[in-house]
Amino acid sequence: MSNQENLRDFEDFSFSSTTDSIHALHVDDDRAFVGMVKTFLERKREEIRVTTETAVEDGIETLREGTIDCVISDYEMPDQDGLDFLELVRDDYPDLPFILFTGKGDEEIASEAITAGVTDYLQKGTGTDQYTVLANRVENLVEKYRAEQEVFRGFQALESAQEGIGILNEQGEYVYLNQAYAEVYSTDREEILEDHWESLYPEREADRFRQEILPALESAGTWTGQSVGLTIDGERVTENLSLTQLDDGGHVCVVRDITDEKQREEELRREQRFLETALNSLNDLFYVFDEDLNYIRWNDQFEEVIGYSKAEIQELTPMDLFEGETKAEIEASVPHKAC
């Protein structure tokens, strides 16, 4: 059947429609043929846009310059054939859909193409049915490729996350965790994978999980709070923990080591208690106010002498404790913040 007859049959040629656009690159040294394929695919499949080239070198250049979702290539071409093209594509785009669309139906070529990493192999035929098949292959392969890329990007995000992220199955065994998760417990992920979560917690904390946390997770679908884990060396780890229930009975666990933060908080509390004890042991009055004349610290002796409670002192300024000429003299001597 001639190209003109194929185009006349085009009125009866139709495809289903999808919403995402697809940019395909078709390389074939037959300029009339690639033009016809482009026409067939684009007219009835609005989401497909085809760029055509007649040489492998030009195809590689187009591939590097634009965003291509799928490559379609002939086998027999001057200078470089379709397998040469496939090898060049695979060097930079190892997973990009590549369809060898050729009139040469040789089993040896098909075997070589599969070995070289071709995604699909389609033999040219007659009539418009071959373009229906080609369009379906392009659509299905691109859909699969995009889904795989989406999963890959998701795992990249998990792997690069600063928080530890783990996924447990219904039995409570780890089926996935990123490196940050393993580092919380000072180990490698291989040491935790397929282990039960109980191996990372002291017995008392594991009891708390079984009696309180997991029932709350099952009831609400999520749980967030603090817990105490164990490193591989038996050291205790204070952690912020977020759990999310999965439909299959497992759950996602996001963990962050806050041991250092809790230690700093405890050190600050100890310093605060020491300072308060030291100030309250003074027989003299001690107080500090800021540039707005608000009291920010005082000792017990100060409270006893002026006779006000803590809440009342917070509402006072030093000027409120004086009257008459004394108050005026003090106000004149105290620098005020410019308005």
Automatic annotation (TrEMBL):
Matches recorded under CDD domains: PAS, REC
Keywords noted in UniProt: Coiled coil, Phosphoprotein
Coiled coil: 258-285
Domain (PAS) ranges: 156-220, 271-313
Family annotation (InterPro entries): Biofilm_reg_signaling, CheY-like_superfamily, PAS, PAS-like_dom_sf, PAS_4, Sig_transdc_resp-reg_receiver
PANTHER family given in the database record: BIOFILM ARCHITECTURE MAINTENANCE PROTEIN MBAA, DIGUANYLATE CYCLASE DGCP
Protein name per UniProt: PAS domain-containing protein
Organism for this UniProt entry: Halovenus rubra
